[in-house]
Amino acid sequence: MHYKITHITKYDYTDKVSLSYSEARLMPRNCKNQQVISSTLDIEPYAADFRIREDFFGNHVAYFSMQQAHNVFTITAVSEVQLQENPAQLDFYQGYTWEEVRNMLAQQQHFSQQSVETLDARQYTLDSPLVAVSAELAEYAQPSFTQGRLITDAVNDLMQRIYKDFTFDPDFTTLATPLATVLEHRRGVCQDFAHLAIGCLRSVGLATRYVSGYIETLPPAGEAKLIGADASHAWFSVYVPEQGWIDFDPTNNQMPNTQHITLGWGRDYADITPLKGVIFGGQQHELDVSVHVECLSS
C-alpha cells in the first residue's frame, strides 16, 4: 500500500510571539513493513537553525527556531510511505509463554548471553514519565495472564478486554489526565488506551513501547469509520524474543497491518510528542490540526 500523509498544525496567537524554539516528530521512520519514500516539512514563518537528527529511540526529530515576530505559526508535514503486508495473525507467532518472556527480561545474566535486541527491550519494562506500574494495573491485567498462556494470546486477550471495557470519549481526558483516572472511569482516547495497555504489561514484567502514527480506512457501505482515521493515532508493541516487536491496537481491537502508518515510538507519549517547544510572548492561542491520509495505490 502506497500512502500520502498530510499533517497540518496551525497555532494562532492573540499576541505576537517574539521568539520560539521547537522540535517536531512528524517524519515517519523506516521499520519492518514500512519504507519511507519521501518526507518534508514546510514551516511558516521562516525557520532558522533548522536541522534533523535521530533521537535516542531512532525517531527523526526536526529542531528549528523562529526569530521574527509572528502571530501565526504553521507546520505542514507531507510524507509518502510504502507498507508491505505484515503477517499480523496470532497463529504466526509461536513459542514463548508470557512467564518465559518475563523471566528472560528479568534475568541478571552477563550481557553477552542476551541478544542486543533483548537488552534494548529491557528499558521498556521500567516506569516512564506518563506510565508507572501499579497493583491496580496488574490486577486489571491478571485475567488475561493466566498460568502457562502464550504471550501473544495473553496480550491479544488484554487488547480485546480494553476494547470492550472502555469507551472512546474525546472529551473526557487531556494530556494531563492520570492513568488511574482512565482506569477508574473506563473512558479515554487512543493515547489513553495505549498507555493503559503499556501499564498493564509492564506491571506483569513485560517490555512494551508506545507507537505514534496514523490509520487509514475506507469502510464498507453502512459501516462506521475506524476511530483514529484522519487524525494522529496511537497503539502499542510488545517484545517477544526471537520474534521482535508485535503491534496491537486496543482502540480498534486489531493487530496493525497495512492501514497503520508508523511515525515513531518511545516509552510513552512524552517521548514521541509530535510538536513541542518554548515560545516568548503569544498569550492565548487557538490550535487547529488537520490530518489527511490518502491511499495512492495498493
UniProtKB/TrEMBL annotation:
InterPro entries xref list: Bac_transglu_N, Papain-like_cys_pep_sf, Transglutaminase-like
Classification via SMART domains: TGc (SM00460)
Record-linked Gene3D superfamilies: 3.10.620.30
Ranges where the Transglutaminase-like domain occurs: 182-252
Domain of life: Bacteria
Coiled-coil spans in chain: none
Name of the protein in its database record: Transglutaminase domain protein
Source organism per UniProt: Methylotenera versatilis (strain 301)
Highest classification ranks of the organism: Bacteria, Pseudomonadati, Pseudomonadota, Betaproteobacteria, Nitrosomonadales
